[in-house]
């Protein structure tokens, strides 16, 4: 499987894996699967940490590497696709993750109930 972690799933996988559903945790920990983390999630975490809205590891990138997660950069195609999405979801970070999952054929691991409205494959975080 090729997975893309929503921002909350990234944080749980790194610091509180018991919060993940059993299937999500098993899929993330299965070395046969590719697990991607969007740079949009890194950006979202940095912004929310700076505003005191969440606690996250200081060196997030090192933590991701240690877990074997792959960074997923944002391309112009991703940006254009995110901008063209219907307005089911207004959060720009989630819209980018949706566009990346669509463009790259990834399963988005999330608990956000609005994301399936876009017809992408999801797995309950």
Short synopsis of the structure:
The chain has 125 residues and is α/β, with parallel strands linked by helices.
Name the descriptors.
125 residues, Rossmann fold, five-stranded parallel beta sheet, 6 helices, 5 strands
SSE blueprint and pairings:
Layout (H helix, E strand, L loop, with lengths): L1 E4 L1 H9 L6 H8 L4 E5 H12 L9 H8 L2 E3 L3 H9 L7 H13 L2 E4 L11 E3 L1
Parallel strand pairs: 1-2, 1-4, 2-3, 4-5
Helix pairs in contact: 5-6
Structure description:
It is a single chain. This protein has six helices and five strands; from the N terminus they run E-H-H-E-H-H-E-H-H-E-E. The longest helix is centred in the last third of the chain and has 13 residues, at 92-104. The protein has helices at 7-15, 22-29, 39-50, 60-67, 76-84, 92-104; strands at residues 2-5, 34-38, 70-72, 107-110, 122-124. By secondary structure, it is of the alpha/beta class. The chain has a single domain (2-124), classed as 5'-nuclease (Rossmann fold, 3-Layer(aba) Sandwich), CATH 3.40.50.
Helical residues, percent: 40-55%
Protein structure class: alpha/beta
Number of strands: 5
User: How far is it from the N-terminal to the C-terminal residue, by CA?
Assistant: 15 Å
């Amino acid at each position: 499987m090729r997975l893309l972690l929503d921002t909350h799933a990234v944080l749980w996988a790194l610091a509180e894996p018991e919060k993940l559903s059993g299937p999500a945790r098993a899929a993330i920990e299965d070395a046969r699967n590719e697990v991607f983390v969007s740079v949009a999630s890194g950006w979202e975490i940095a912004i929310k940490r700076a505003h005191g809205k969440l606690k996250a590891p200081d060196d997030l990138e090192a933590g991701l590497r240690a877990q074997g997660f792959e960074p997923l950069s944002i391309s112009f195609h991703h940006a254009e696709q995110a901008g063209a999405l219907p307005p089911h979801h207004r959060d720009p970070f989630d819209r980018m993750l949706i566009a990346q999952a669509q463009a790259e054929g990834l399963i988005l691991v999330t608990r956000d109930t609005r994301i399936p409205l876009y017809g992408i494959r999801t797995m309950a975080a």
